[in-house]
Amino acid sequence: MHHTSELALSRELPRSHPYPSTPLLLMSEPLTAAICQRICDHMNADHSEDLVLYVKAFGGPQNLTTAKLVALDPEGMDLVAQVPAGTVSLRIQFDHVLQDAADAHYTLVTLSKEARKFPA
After folding, report:
1. DSSP summary character for residue 117
2. Which helix (H) or strand (E) holds 52?
3. Under 8 Å CB-to-CB from 31, ≥6 apart: which residues?
4. Cross-strand partners of 89
5. CA proximity to 37, closest of 67, 86, 73
6. pTM for the model
7. Is the Cβ–Cβ distance between 63 and 84 less than 8 Å?
8. Among residues 41, 47, 58, 42, which one has the least CA distance to residue 5?
């Protein structure tokens, strides 16, 4: 079973970002395809629990066992969630167009914080 849905974030994310730097990316790097892939690889390797939270908090299936970030672009991110009946693909639309790698980092951190506010 494979379903696709598109989700939009319904809450306004804070536009001020509390984190001054990140070791993963240089702040001024443009959001190229290579940078987007590096972000996906990093999130899948080091933040898989956040990916599950994104899916659950922002309208995806609640019975997922794992989630993988398969693509990221300035307007949103595509995830694949593993559920008992198969996989579900979904897109989470950002509330703004990402400007650069730093904006991507701050936005994903903010999404993680927002997702943690929802009951598990």
Report:
1. T
2. helix 48-57
3. 73, 74, 98, 99, 100, 101, 103, 104
4. 4, 80
5. 73
6. 0.77
7. yes
8. 58
